[in-house]
Amino acid sequence: MAADLTEFIDELPLVDHHVHGATAHDLSRRAFEELITESDRPVPAWMTTFDSQLGHAILRHCAPELGLDPHASPEEYLARRARLGADEVNRRLLGASGVEHYLLETGYRGEEILGPGGMAEVTGVPVDEVVRLEQVAEQVAASGCGAGAFARRFAEALWERTRTARGLKTVVAYRHGLDFDPSRPSAAEVTEAAGRWLGERETAPSDEPPEGIEGGTRDGTETGADGGSGRRPDRRLGLVQDAAPATAAEPGRRGWRLTDPVLLRHLIWTGLDRGLPLQFHTGFGDPDVDLRRADPLLLRGLIERAEPTGVPIMLLHCYPYVRNAGHLAHAYPAVHLDVGLGVTHTGARAAALVGQSLEVAPFAKLLFSSDAWGPAELHHLGARLWRRALARVLGWFVAEGEWSAGQAARVAAMVGAGNARRVYELTAPRP
Amino acid sequence: MAADLTEFIDELPLVDHHVHGATAHDLSRRAFEELITESDRPVPAWMTTFDSQLGHAILRHCAPELGLDPHASPEEYLARRARLGADEVNRRLLGASGVEHYLLETGYRGEEILGPGGMAEVTGVPVDEVVRLEQVAEQVAASGCGAGAFARRFAEALWERTRTARGLKTVVAYRHGLDFDPSRPSAAEVTEAAGRWLGERETAPSDEPPEGIEGGTRDGTETGADGGSGRRPDRRLGLVQDAAPATAAEPGRRGWRLTDPVLLRHLIWTGLDRGLPLQFHTGFGDPDVDLRRADPLLLRGLIERAEPTGVPIMLLHCYPYVRNAGHLAHAYPAVHLDVGLGVTHTGARAAALVGQSLEVAPFAKLLFSSDAWGPAELHHLGARLWRRALARVLGWFVAEGEWSAGQAARVAAMVGAGNARRVYELTAPRP
Amino acid sequence: MAADLTEFIDELPLVDHHVHGATAHDLSRRAFEELITESDRPVPAWMTTFDSQLGHAILRHCAPELGLDPHASPEEYLARRARLGADEVNRRLLGASGVEHYLLETGYRGEEILGPGGMAEVTGVPVDEVVRLEQVAEQVAASGCGAGAFARRFAEALWERTRTARGLKTVVAYRHGLDFDPSRPSAAEVTEAAGRWLGERETAPSDEPPEGIEGGTRDGTETGADGGSGRRPDRRLGLVQDAAPATAAEPGRRGWRLTDPVLLRHLIWTGLDRGLPLQFHTGFGDPDVDLRRADPLLLRGLIERAEPTGVPIMLLHCYPYVRNAGHLAHAYPAVHLDVGLGVTHTGARAAALVGQSLEVAPFAKLLFSSDAWGPAELHHLGARLWRRALARVLGWFVAEGEWSAGQAARVAAMVGAGNARRVYELTAPRP
């Protein structure tokens, strides 16, 4: 029965409710190593990022997909990866992940990362979009906008941009922290804050950005204030286009990185008006995040104020605050959570996270995500490691006589796909 | 030997040092579902609270007590429950829990919940009382009391009310948070705060309560500002008397919900004067609790100031702050803890909590509680799940060669009953 | 293969990168009991500190080293310990720990505790020193120093004192909390703060110390403001010299306990100038520590500001914030961590901590320490329990097919010794 349950979970079609595109580029060793860590610092000469749970998981689970034995060496793995080429690697790793529907957060869409169309083409499954609030606001700013028009212009842009989107995302955890004033700012406050933001930007010389503003744009219309997980764009560009320094890709002017807490709140409240499920990055991430200020419990005030809207609040990732997130999901009908990203980076330990998510959170409130960005190994492992962890946790419940196998399979199907289909109103999969 | 240890723990007589009454009423499905969650929000139509660890545990462990197979369906379970009737259900579930002494927190004693006499009658074992400080204060206020007399009147009422009580309880975690000023307020501060509280109440029209005050009273003498675990009384009444809306049970005036931090501190310090073990709700609970402000570490200042009194400080439940509570129990002789409530709601995962409680806390500082309120399933599972979790954790220590079986049995007996007998000065059980 | 891995880890030579001296004195039962807890309160009459994970671990693992069966009684154990005498006990317990290099934190060097020379003599392995910043500053103050000269005098003393040292240590977590302003104080601020500190001390009568100052000195040159783990010196002296009250050992004047946050920051920044790896006590410890203010996440600001120095930041112990520390080690190249002290006090549960340390922290960032002080049981168990916990965690990874046995052995060797050799620039062990 444990074997049956494991097989059931291995073959379960998944909805990945928060993911980014895979890279279509080949990657040097340095680029690959820097993309399998959340750190944006250079990897010190005395270490390799393969010496991590994620590194070990790549060698264990991705190597066989590329035709190698499990536990290959990093050198063997990267040589095989280079020989096969990015397209074939993507085809194999994405194809073997068993994901049947992607909700792609497209906060950053350069040539190096596949967009919804590219992902759909490679994987052959539906790909819907999740729109990042901050990116829309930064595009409004970049297009030229007065302070008094900002709120209207942002709302118009958001509605236009999300006509077919399935959800919204905010990176307020990176830009300010989750400890923001949960009340809705007044129109006057928004105009005043927009004036500060837009005015500062207008008067700042292009080569002397305000402190902390490091983002750049790759072209005139797209502002890439940071990457998929909040990474700084100069880093990501630099990594993927290994030979070219980040600055070479920048057109000489700075991005509109939005960090003003009044405006960030305004985006969130406008997002609640829009009514699509609203995703919050919480917990573990790159060094931009102050982990103390990324505890989902800090969202309690907003969650309570947002209850009348009925908008689903999606707490992403949550490591190491999984139990705190579970409490919120228990207390408030709107709150859901996943343990993505943490599962990928904890590898052989991922069952510890999945286990905590199966404590006080109602089972209808749990979802699957990978939060993968770039190397298809992250997409593959997000699913693979989650399946293995879930099979261990649920298998243990069954083996100990606490749950029936039928209950375990049913909960696995809810968490893997059913809950996401309900929340995001996705159509049923093709037979 | 593992089987012997499991059997020993299964048959261990327990002292439940923090519990509320069982309901003597039959329950509709809606009422039952709402009573097996800490959330006070309506259960959304797209989910059932049976899809939770607690729900699965009911179907696994309570179903056989009612004559069904383990893992019955919710429909089967509730049908059988209805057929047997509340009295028989209580007799079976409470009887099979193996509790030999209850310390009943009687913050709310309506007809729907058994009081000490009723619980003693159903179970045939001793039931002693734990008195909630806030309830006593609210009764003093409701009886008519001037600000200048409040401190004296409260002390008199507390001493009178606790003549045979075994302990005191505070829900300051719900009413304010544990981040209160730990120093004792001066007499003048208390009088001033009492003036604000009593004055506000007197001038507030009955249909325009101050913000946040939602509680009501069921009769002229009892103030039910909230329920057993801090729940709002309107909710609890509504749930149990399923057909009758909450307001129908209210006599048309509002309760004296005490939330003033100066008065809450005053109650605690008067409680320390009284000298009975003082229980603090900490951690997980209903949405009224801000979990960030329910971390027991916030009590450090009070614990240090209270050391000269020698009063035992009982940290209740503590999820997910079990390790923090363990640190306090390690550092300070007066501090004890339990993992009740969390065990009930984490079900098959309860061993994770019990394991954390057996880290840095001295074994003489750990107690058992269920924190059950209402359905006897909660009383039953509080004990049953705790036994199973403890047997797993201690059994693993023994199997790994770290502990002897004799050490394990001895610690189980300390935590299950011996420590509570010492702290609350309970007489030995009847042979 | 699991057996092979366990044997490999059992025999792995370790570098203990944060440890204190063993006591060369025999210990009464009371003294022994008080030294196997972090609490500085008297042990209540109704409990014994043997009723703890550490107590059980002593009876399980140290008893056989003294010729007893595992799980001996406390009485048997202490009788055998007394018969053998402290020298023989030290020889056996230290010898069997398998530590091949000690980095001894010498913040307190009385006759009762072995210094580097004594430890090297008993163990026959290299012993290098880690110098406590606060002790050096307090020695400067005790030697007579004007406020204006303090910064220079402290720097001179630090360089002189650390000519052969391998690292620095700060107990700012005990003296203030990790929530200090991370910026470097100006010279004027340091002089002003030094004036307050030195002036207060000069004017305070010897029998009326400022509030909170309890430390004393044992002689004119050494200030023992607290013990190895931040313990108050009166306690430690009292415990070890069981017959003599603490005050009898004090020469009649009070110590220079440094708690000023400006000066504590100045010490840290001067320590960063010195350039040796800088150890921070974080997490669990004696009651002096406010655990809420000992979360390593509070160091994020300092870590970022210190990045240009390249100085390794060593987060010690971290319980229960192991995952938070792991995030910092993941994000910042300079940050390392260990789970010492927590392993010792969680005994049979230590695998839970070691498991958490092997989540998001890169494996090149993990080290081993015991943080032992006094009874050689703590030195022995720091190593023994860590080996057993690591073998369980890694053995499980291998048994589940997630890691190869070779990967597990390699990571064990990195964490047990290799990483410490790299960080502290230790020479290779003798063949």
TrEMBL record, chains A, B, C:
Gene3D superfamilies: Metal-dependent hydrolases. GO terms for molecular function: hydrolase activity. Pfam families: Amidohydro_2 (PF04909). Residues 182-238 are annotated as: Disordered. It comes from the Bacteria. Residues 254-426 form the Amidohydrolase-related domain. Keywords: Hydrolase. This is Amidohydrolase. It comes from Nonomuraea rhodomycinica.
